Amino acid sequence: MIPCVQKRGSRTVGLIFYLYEPGRCEEHIDPHVVAAWDAFAPDPGRHPDAAYADLARLLDQPVDALVPSRRPEQHVWHLSVRNSPEDPLLTDGQWADVARRMVAATGIAPTGDDTACRWAAVRHADDHIHIVATLVREDGRRPRLNNDAARAQAEARRLEAEYGLRQLNPGDGTAAKRPTSAERHKAARERRPQTPREELRETVRHAAAGTMNETEFFHRITAAGLLVHQRVAPSGDLLGYKVALPDDRNQDGEPVFYAGSTLAPDLSLPKIRKRWTTGDPESGRNTEAPAGPRWPGPAGARRRASTAMWQALLVIDHGTDEQIASRITGAGEVLDALATTSDTATRNELRQAAFVFERATRSHTQAAHGHDRALRQAARDLVRNGPALGHGEDGATTAMVIDMAFFLITAAAHWHARRNHAQQAAAARQSAQHLRTAYRAAAQHPMAVLRQRGQRLTQPRLQRQAAHIRAAVPELAEQILAEPGWPALAATLADAEATGHDPALLLHEATARRELDTADSVSDVVAWRLRRVADLPADGQQKLAVTRAGSFSQRVSGPVADRPQVSGKAR
After folding, report:
1. What is the C-alpha to C-alpha distance for residues 557 and 520, in angstroms, rounded to an integer?
2. Is the residue at 292 inside a domain?
3. Potential cystine with 291: which of 134, 230, 300, 480 (Cβ 3.0-4.6 Å)?
């Protein structure tokens, strides 16, 4: 159940006209009053002698009784209450109960208050009602409406439980504004897959991912095809911006602009500037070597993004809340960058993952943005290196980075859940499901190649790799050896041996830091981690450059003192 306090108005009769008329798409069917402040209030929908003006005049009487100087300019209060499509249909009597409880909870008409505001609830569709009220009480005073939206939400959670409706997660006031019903109806009429507000929010977020200054940010917005209007002070300083879709026009044929702050709280110009002006106190630390020059272009960018997410994953296990919140916002930028540079096989799922995860990037925990520099640089790197192909090293490293993104987003979901951030945790879990689907599409071919190579290994070599697995993760060894992905992991261990690595040290590094018993395929996860940290080709068809590796702990991980030991479950 979604209650939404609408913008206040000044014409009661105008709102009543909207509630009773058919609507632009004739979606208003059988409009009628289900409850009101007075059981004898006129109902223009069911009583032919009642006019819209009659109901409006009665609602406005307490307002009109005041001298003009004391009348509130915006005196019309409007609340819509909508159920989910899968919810059972409520009767008129049940909707009447919902309306009475909503006006009581919000302070419009507290229970037992005979001098409260006048109100009426109109039902013109099966799944929702509209409540209209005038903001002067019968005794001439104003109602107390502090936090009316939050109180309506709290009452909705109680009603969901009592009526057996879909139970939504409680919000905390940090969500982006939902599209209005008018925006949804307009999008439906124009057959748009998203409302303009949602499309603009997604496009601006993608444009902001990894940017370093205003010039780059606005260049990306313009390149994405949006109309941009900048608000400039007389001094020449840029104060803000607003954007519009070229084909979204109002009735006068003018573009419909949305300010960045109305798209999402973190898309205002001051909030975006914070991403550019904060330094990283840990920028000098590097716990793993970046992808070398032999991995140029999109493949190298994906390897570096995987490393940045791995480091962020470790921080989520042991960092402060501010540091963790910063990594989560940075993860959102990486997902936005992946969504704009992915190939056809994964594009839709990655776009959905980024779109949904947007909700998980904001909470009342203030992010220390300086700590997200590595992830922001990874996002910038992804964008600057352009789209990845769906095959070869590009395709295989796409599977690698999605696999790591899944673990990071899942860890973010656990962190939010522990802090009772219900909406953020749900968004992160939903994003992880889209990443799971994208991973399967991206990994299908490269994993098949590695499995074929593993199946061609001699029996003594397979037994040697199996012994390494039993020594490194004895509690998961039999599960790994029975998985379809075991040959791919065996081929990876053989490749590591061929390039001079010690498989035992590699396995310890890949498995000791994080539990794996909740992974869909432990062998897949370990194989990608090994190929990343050992700098092996992600595409199993590439030839290995056989060179002796240096000390693994020094070459890959840096000083032992800098290597945090963590634990926690993933996937």
Report:
1. 27
2. no
3. 300
Instruction: Give me the sheet containing 238-244, strands edge to edge.
Output: 227-232, 238-244, 258-259
What distance in Å separates the CA atoms of residue 431 and residue 244, rounded to the nearest whole number?
A: 27
SS (H, E, C) 353-395: HHHHHHHHHCCCCCCCHHHHHHHHHHHHHHHHHCCCCCCHHHH
Answer yes or no: do 31 and 147 share one domain: yes
CA distance 391 to 448: 13
Distance CA 189, CA 286 (A): 52
Q: Please, is 251 exposed, middle or buried when counting C-beta atoms within 10 Å of its C-beta (0-12, 13-18, 19+)?
A: exposed
The CATH number of residue 74's host domain is 3.30.930
Q: Residues of the chain with pLDDT > 70: what percent?
A: 90
Mean pLDDT on 229-238: 92
Same domain, 58 and 18: yes
Q: Based on the domain organization, do 141 and 99 belong to the same domain?
A: yes
Comparing CA positions, the residue from 72, 85, 82 lying closest to residue 6 is 82
Rounded to whole angstroms, the Cα distance separating 199 from 192 reads 10
- Reported as a single tens digit per residue, the pLDDT across 486-504 is 999 999 999 998 888 888 8
Tens digit of each residue's pLDDT (9 = 90 or more) over 185-223: 889 889 999 999 999 999 999 999 999 999 999 999 999
Residues with Cβ within 8 Å of residue 251, at least 6 apart in sequence: none
Structure tokens at 494: 């053989």
Task: Tell me how far apart the alpha carbons of residues 174 and 192 are, in angstroms, rounded to a whole number.
Answer: 26
Instruction: Pick the more confident residue, 389 or 404.
Output: 404
Give the residue numbers spanning the domain of 223: 181-277
- This prediction's pTM: 0.79
- Banded model confidence at residue 505, pLDDT cuts 50, 70, 90: confident
Which is it for the CA torsion 367, 368, 374, 379, positive or negative?
A: positive
Asked whether the beta carbons of 79 and 31 are under 8 A apart, the reply is: no
In the three-class reduction of DSSP (H, G, I as helix; E, B as strand; rest coil), residue 475 is classed as: coil
The verdict on residue 152 lying in a domain is: yes
Q: Are the CB atoms for 570 and 407 separated by under 8 Å?
A: yes
How many structural domains does the chain have?
Answer: 3
Asked if residue 285 belongs to a domain, the reply is no
Q: Which two tokens stand for residue 514?
A: 């994080």
Strand pairing report for 227-232 and 119-125: unpaired
